[in-house]
Amino acid sequence: MKLIIKLIAGITLGIVLGLFAPEWITRILITVKALFAELLFFTVPLLILFFITSGIAALPQKSGQLLGRSLGLAYVSTLLAGFMTLMVASVVVPALTSPSAALDAGQALTLTPYVSVIVPPVFNVMTALLMAFVFGLGIAATGAQSLQQLSDQGRDLIQWLLVKAIIPMLPVYIAGVFAEMAAAGTVFVTLRSFAIVLGMAVVLHWVWITLLFVLAGLRIGRSPLALLRNMMPAYFTALGTMSSAATIPVSLQCSKNNGVSEDIANFTVPLFATVHLSGSTITIVSCAVAVISMQSNMEMPPLSVMVPFILTLGVVMLAAPGVPGGAVMSAVGLLGSMLGFGESALALMIALYLAQDSFGTACNVTCDGALALMLDEQVQRGSAAPAA
Asked: Is 153 within 8 Å of 58 (Cβ atoms)?
């Protein structure tokens, strides 16, 4: 919650400086923003490489069938949530954002940084993603301990960088973006659009939660409302912690209260907390559509682009860092490489995502309970089949 407060403070400070401060102060802030952007975009491919490699290599080798079912269920849920959001946002957002209200922060810039430094990433995002799968699957198959240790240490190093530098600096980065827009006269249009997008994302979270629990209730023959009521402690805990991992003890108990067998709950709940981010996917897709609609120099990509984007996003979400804002940090590279987001569009995307991060996390955690119910029903039915 402190991050959200800092984000709001950053937006407010950026607007005030952009509107009232002398030009040289605003340019200093814009310079800091530009330098930070180079660090951010340099880090993203490394984040994808180390987190996904380490995540795949660390998956339990035993209970392979249960693991495969769990990963498949998490991936399908994430994809369907993304496609549902794309259909809704593609209709709702353009209708609520008129062409005259569109903005292009990139073209409207009137101030430039004092210092400009270009730091190319070591490799691009898609290369990092392919390398992560090659190394992750290779480590899992061969048991290469040295490579696994290297990937784990790389993951820990990048997470340290996120926690100590990148996440704390995001409010300053956002302040620079909003100072830029305030100086250009486009900031208030952006703020009006923010409220629409955030409200739509939260509504879509609850639509997806409801759909999953209705499906789970139908499969096990119990009331979806009763099942959902038992998961509410986990939902509200996640709102406060903004962390699926920190909510595991509560969501584990909630799943057991819903009747999930102890063995299945103990296996699936911690796993889903890492690999199932349907709520985060809903937010990323809805915010991406909104940012595209808000940028006058961007057009909504065709399905031939959006479908591969969501399919790839679902993979990236399987190993997003477990820190506030970690999901959008993982998605930044895809947004730039697949949807053509520039620096200003990515900054808006990060600001939108962080503003509702607690709600996205709460959706992730609550939906984990529904998937655990479905998986438990599959296992119980499978074990009863030979006896029948």
From this structure: no
Architecture of domain 2-382: Orthogonal Bundle (1.10)
Where exactly are the structural domains of the chain?
A: 2-382
Distance of CA 23 to the CA centre of its chain: 35
The per-residue pLDDT string of the chain (388 residues; one tens digit each, 9 = 90 and over) reads 576 678 788 888 888 988 888 888 888 888 988 888 888 878 878 877 887 788 777 766 555 577 788 888 999 999 999 999 999 988 888 777 654 344 444 444 457 788 888 888 888 777 887 888 788 888 888 888 899 899 889 988 988 888 888 878 878 887 887 887 787 776 676 677 777 888 889 999 999 999 999 999 999 899 999 999 999 998 988 876 677 766 887 888 899 999 988 888 888 887 788 788 899 999 999 989 888 887 766 678 888 889 999 999 888 876 665 666 778 887 888 888 888 888 778 888 888 887 777 888 899 999 999 999 999 888 887 655 544 4
Residues 6+ away with beta carbon under 8 Å from 149: none
Residue-by-residue DSSP string for 205-267: HHHHHHHHHHHHHHHHTS-HHHHHHHHHHHHHHHHHH--TTTTHHHHHHHHHHTT--HHHHHH
Nearest Cα neighbor of 327 from 67, 48, 77, 111 is 48
SS3 label, residue 364: helix
143 neighbors 216 (Cβ within 8 angstroms): no
Asked whether the beta carbons of 230 and 254 are under 8 A apart, the reply is: yes
Dihedral over alpha carbons 24, 29, 32, 34 (to 10 degrees): -90
Where do the H-state alpha helices sit in the chain?
2-20, 23-57, 64-96, 125-142, 145-161, 167-184, 187-220, 224-241, 248-257, 262-275, 278-294, 303-316, 326-339, 343-355, 357-384
Annotate 267-292 with b (16+ C-beta within 10 A) or e (fewer). Answer: bbbbbbbbbbbbbbbbbbbbbbbbbb
CB 71 within 8 A of CB 263: no
DSSP state of 162: I
Q: Look up the pTM and report it.
A: 0.77
User: Which letter does DSSP use for residue 302 in this model?
Assistant: P
Count other Cβ atoms within 10 Å, centred on residue 149: 13
